[in-house]
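Board notes, transcribed. Complex of a protein with NAP.
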Amino acid sequence: MTRLAVVTGGGTGIGRATAGMLAGEGFDVIIVGRRAEVLADAVKWIGPQATAVTADAADPAQIPAVVEAVAGRPLDVLVNNAGAYIGGDDTTLDAVAARWRANLDSNVLSAVLMTTALLPQLRRPGGKIILTSSIAAQRGGGGPYSAAKAALHGYGLDLATSLGAEGITANVIAPGYVTDSEFFDGRMTPEGHRKRVDASVLKRAGTPDDIAEAVRWLIGPGGGFVTGQIINVNGGSVLGR
Ligand SMILES: NC(=O)c1ccc[n+]([C@@H]2O[C@H](COP(=O)([O-])OP(=O)(O)OC[C@H]3O[C@@H](n4cnc5c(N)ncnc54)[C@H](OP(=O)(O)O)[C@@H]3O)[C@@H](O)[C@H]2O)c1
C-alpha cells in the first residue's frame, strides 16, 4: 500500500517543498494549513498524491479533521512544520503574555496537538516524526519565537525517548535562513538579507529544497538509526551544536 505522510504548513515554503519531495518518493501526502486557497494551489503544484485539510494546527477543535483525512491508514511520516514568528509590542504585561502565548501556540502547541492526535496511527515499527525548529533556538534573536523553537527540542527528545521501543524515530530539523517562503514577508530588508547570508560559512541563503533534502535523508534508509537529534541545516551559521 502507498505510504502516507502528513505535512503541516505544507501550503508554502519549506512545507510545500517537503510535501513535493515526499510525493516524488511515492508517498500520499496530506498537507495542512489555515488558508484553503493556498493549500489548493499547493495541491496543484505537488500533484495527484496530495490532498489538503484546512485546519489550524494549534486549535484542538480543528485537529480531528486531519485524523479523519488519515482515515485509519498507517501513517509513515509526520512533519510538524507549521510555525511562525509572531511579533508585537511589549509595552504592557498583557501584550507580552499575548505574544508569548501566540508564539508558543504557533510553534509548539501545533506540533504537540498534531503529534498527540496522530500518534495512534503512526506506523510501528517505522514511523518517523520530524519537528521543524530554527537556528533561532540555538542562538536567540527572536524573543519568544526562539524560546518556542527551543521548546520543540525538548519535546523532540522526549518523543524519541518514549517512542523508540516502538520503532518510531523523532528528530528535529533546525533550519538557518531560508528564502522563497512567506516566513519573512514584510519583515526582510536588503541589509537583513545580506547580514544573514554573510553569517553563513557557505555565503548563501538556504532554500526550501535544502530542508526537504534533510527530511528525505531522515525518512529514508540513511535515517534508520537516527533519532533524538537536532539536525542543523543552516549553511554553517551556527557550528557544531
Ligand atoms: N524561512 C526561514 O528562514 C526559517 C528558518 C528557520 C525555521 N523556519 C521554520 O520553518 C517552518 C516553515 O517556515 P517557512 O519558511 O516555510 O515559512 P512559511 O512559508 O510562512 O510557512 C509556514 C506555513 O505554516 C502554516 N501555518 C502557520 N501556522 C499554522 C497553524 N497554526 N496551523 C496550520 N498551519 C499553519 C502557514 O500557512 P497558513 O498561514 O495558511 O496556516 C504556512 O504555510 C516554520 O516552522 C518556521 O518557523 C523557517
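The CA atoms of residues 173 and 231 lie 5 Å apart. Helices lie at 13-24, 36-46, 64-70, 93-118, 136-139, 144-163, 190-199, 208-219.
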